[in-house]
Amino acid sequence: MRLSSMADYAVVTMTAAARHCGHARISAQQLADETGLPAPTVQKLVSKLSAARLLRSVRGAHGGLTLARPAAAISLADIIEAVEGPIAMAACSERLRTDTGRPDCSLESACSVRPHWPLVDAALRGALAGVSLSQLAAPTPTMIEMQA
Amino acid sequence: MRLSSMADYAVVTMTAAARHCGHARISAQQLADETGLPAPTVQKLVSKLSAARLLRSVRGAHGGLTLARPAAAISLADIIEAVEGPIAMAACSERLRTDTGRPDCSLESACSVRPHWPLVDAALRGALAGVSLSQLAAPTPTMIEMQA
DNA sequence: AGATAACTGGACCGAATCAGTCTGATTTGA
DNA sequence: TCAAATCAGACTGATTCGGTCCAGTTATCT
After folding, report:
1. Are the Cβ atoms of B123 and A107 closer than 8 angstroms?
2. Which of strand C's nucleotides are less than 7 A from any protein C-beta?
3. Could you tell me the distance in Å between the CA of residue A56 and the C1' of nucleotide C1?
4. Confidence band (pLDDT; 50, 70, 90) for A94?
5. Residues whose CB falls within 7 A of nucleic chain D?
6. In this structure, are residues A141 and B148 in contact, taking their beta carbons and an 8 Å threshold?
7. Cβ separation of B15 and A113 shorter than 8 Å?
8. Mean pLDDT of B98-105
9. Distance, angstroms, CA B86 to C1' C26?
10. With an 8 Å Cβ cutoff, are A145 and B145 in contact?
11. The domain at B1-141 falls in which architecture?
């Protein structure tokens, strides 16, 4: 139940970017300086975040990064999925949607827990989707309401 | 956002134990046979689950395991925390409650995201606490409602 | 047009965590 | 007293992950 370090850093990076939204474009190097994260790590992160359409990047001299959407329209679930892939608690629930049907869990079709995982995943994703980037960027913690 | 294999197996093991609740005590070996998991792994799991007061173990000849509480009173959050420790998304939110205050994240007090993690953790835990073992043991998936 | 600045994508390596196994100690019932 | 079964800890091998570096591409400024 812990987040990977990369996903953690991604949240910090997006929060830093959100503070500069509306101002100028910000470079990956600048984000690294502000967050204290190593520059190559930030570069790797912004690549994934751009591919997921959370950041918009402008190349060339005086290029940089901006949020692709307003901070209120970006959720914690978006950020985590951009870096870690789809939210799936159990290995078998991830395979349900991705691959060839080749079994790796010895139980497989006989597993009674298996059909329940997608519902759990959805519940978890709902909780994370209820937290917006603008809430995370706020200096004072705000109430987080859960939604179905 | 993925569960560790051990936590995954713990859910499967608890589900198997729930199906025997009310009947006789069941041995760790029996659980291993039914779930298809290696016996030493199941032993390690039941140790943790017993320490967390989710299973009650009876030693000696004709000993075995039973649920410590009715399946409806055991939540997915209980099982996961028994195996993985407290639910904490970010490393720093775990340290908030556990240790000496020694910093390992270079941002520390200046980190603007930090105060928000406990709220996220609570939201996530709430979602997992809403899923009971009796729901997981049911052959047909049931609706999972979220609660604050 | 040339040079510079910035993002893009991949390969690579060291380290830490984790899954799994084994062995010995403890407890209970016959 | 013997046998059965759980309990607790250390150990090991492998997989994954964090982090870095490099070459390539694109756009602006002089």
Report:
1. no
2. 3-10, 18-23, 26-30
3. 29
4. low
5. A 4-6, 9, 38, 40-41, 43-44, 59-63; B 27-29, 43-44, 46-47, 50-51, 57-65
6. no
7. yes
8. 46
9. 30
10. no
11. Orthogonal Bundle (1.10)
Tell me the CA–C1' distance in angstroms for A78 and D12: 39
* A1-140 CATH choice from 1.10.3810.10, 3.30.360.10, 3.50.50.60, 1.10.10.10: 1.10.10.10
**pLDDT value of position A148:** 44
Cβ–Cβ of B113/A87 closer than 8 Å?
no
| pLDDT tens for each residue of A106-147 | 555 567 788 888 889 999 999 999 999 999 988 876 766 554
Which amino acid appears at position A127 of this protein? Answer: A
Residue A143: closest CA among chain B residues belongs to which residue? Answer: B119
| Confidence at residue B100, expressed as pLDDT on a 0 to 100 scale | 40
- Region B35-52 average pLDDT: 89
Q: How far is A146 from chain B (nearest CA, A)?
A: 7
Q: Are A89 and B2 in contact (CB under 8 A)?
A: yes
Burial A96-128 (b: 16+ CB within 10 A, else e): eeeeeeeeebebeeebbbbebbbbbbebbbbbb
Pairing mode, strands B64-67 and B55-58? antiparallel
DSSP codes of every residue in B100-140: -----SSSGGG-SSGGGHHHHHHHHHHHHHTSBHHHHHSSS
The token duo for A82 is 């951009």
Residue position matching structure tokens 């025997």: B20
Residue A130 is predicted with a pLDDT of 93
Q: What's the full length of chain A, in residues?
A: 148
